[in-house]
Amino acid sequence: MTNNAVTRRTFLASTAAIAAAGKLRPARAIAQTGQRNAPIAISSANGLRTVEKAASLMTDGADTLDAVIAGVNIVEADPSDHSVGLGGLPNEDGIVELDSSVMHGPTHNCGAVAAIRNIVHPSRVAKLVLERTDHAMIVGQGALRFAKAHGFKEQDLLTDDARKIWLRWKESHSDRDDWLPPLEATDDRKQSRAAGAIDFTYGTIHCSALNAAGDLSAVTTTSGLSYKIPGRVGDSPIVGAGMYVDNEVGAAGSTGRGEAVIKNCGAFAVIELMRQGASPAQACMAVIKRIADHTKDPRLLDDQGRPKFDVKMYALAKDGRFAAASIWSNGKLAVSSNGTARLEDAAYLHKRPE
User: Fold this and answer.
1) Banded model confidence at residue 65, pLDDT cuts 50, 70, 90
2) Percent of the chain with pLDDT over 70
3) Which of 36, 64, 189, 278 would you call most buried, defined as having the most Cβ atoms within 10 angstroms of its Cβ?
4) For the purposes of burial, counting CB atoms within 10 Å of the CB of 21, is it exposed (0-12), middle (13-18) or buried (19 or more)?
5) Would you say 240 and 283 are in contact if contact means Cβ atoms under 8 Å apart?
6) Which pTM value belongs to this model?
7) Can you tell me the distance from the alpha carbon of 123 to that of 138, in angstroms, rounded to the nearest whole number?
8) DSSP-assigned letters across all residues of 20-67
9) For 8-158+201-350, CATH number?
């Protein structure tokens, strides 16, 4: 399946036409007429190995939730990916805090952890919240104690590379403090500050999966906004924002600016649009447009009134259709279907300047 980029005008026209014609069908009816070609796994662009692993496990009979968690565990343990787990970029104090949520379609059960420290695989802890508690989310020190009670070992998550990136931010984010970058040959510290400045980054991995029986599950896991205020929680551990599953409809998730997704209940909104009959592509684009339209703060908008940040929404329908959409062009999603793992283009609202 190819997800071609669509313009905002084209999307709005097609959506309006569908609504006007009253042709939105219940998701159950769509599922009966679709072709699954399962197992299928979709993920964010950093998840090629993730979807391969998830699809392989489902082929061997693994539960969809076990499959998606095993898939993202690869990225959580990869120190070269600074958006997730080990090697994730830290908060403003130089401490890595992780968030994750999981949801199991067949049981409609979920679990999440937020602001957990020193545990490489927050997605596994989120699964234990689902399985071993009557809660949906545990945060902070409570989440760490819960993980340790179940045998998880603490580990320093701040790698040397991530620490250097954090120090570079610390040294360059202000010219009115006592943090200085290393002396350059010119000893021009102001120039060094400007040259060393880096932006905040939003990094995450999401994975949704569908097996041959038509069951779905999803997980989202992240180290969150780089250099965040300690204790900040984004959308990733919030069921209905960074991830949501309805086994009769589909699974959805997000990456990007978590605050924007939270304010629009992103993943839940995608599923509800699909329940009304929208395709995964239509649903993702509708939510992306909603996020853009609801962004009012001038500091978050460019001179044309468009969001300066990006958000990507991902969706996998029960009938096997999938799609992703982003605010800005050049977005990708990782897909494994029909035994092949690959990257595909995401639809977008605005084209990035050349």
Assistant:
1) very high
2) 82
3) 64
4) exposed
5) no
6) 0.86
7) 12
8) HHT----HHHHHHHS---S-EEEEETT-HHHHHHHHHHHHTT--HHHH
9) 3.60.20.30
Alpha-carbon gap, residue 65 to 349, rounded angstroms: 31
3-state class of 193 per DSSP?
helix
- Alpha-helical runs (H) found in 197-330: 258-263, 266-275, 280-293
What are the residue numbers of the active site? 204
Question: pLDDT digits over 169-178, tens only?
Answer: 988 877 666 6
Model confidence pLDDT, tens digit, residues 268-300: 999 999 999 999 999 999 999 999 999 999 999
Task: Output b/e per residue, 279-306; b: 16+ Cβ within 10 A.
Answer: bbbbbbbbbbbbbbeebeeeeeeeeeee
For residue 45, is it left (φ>0), alpha (ψ between -120 and 50) or beta?
alpha
Where in the chain are the domains? Answer: 8-158+201-350
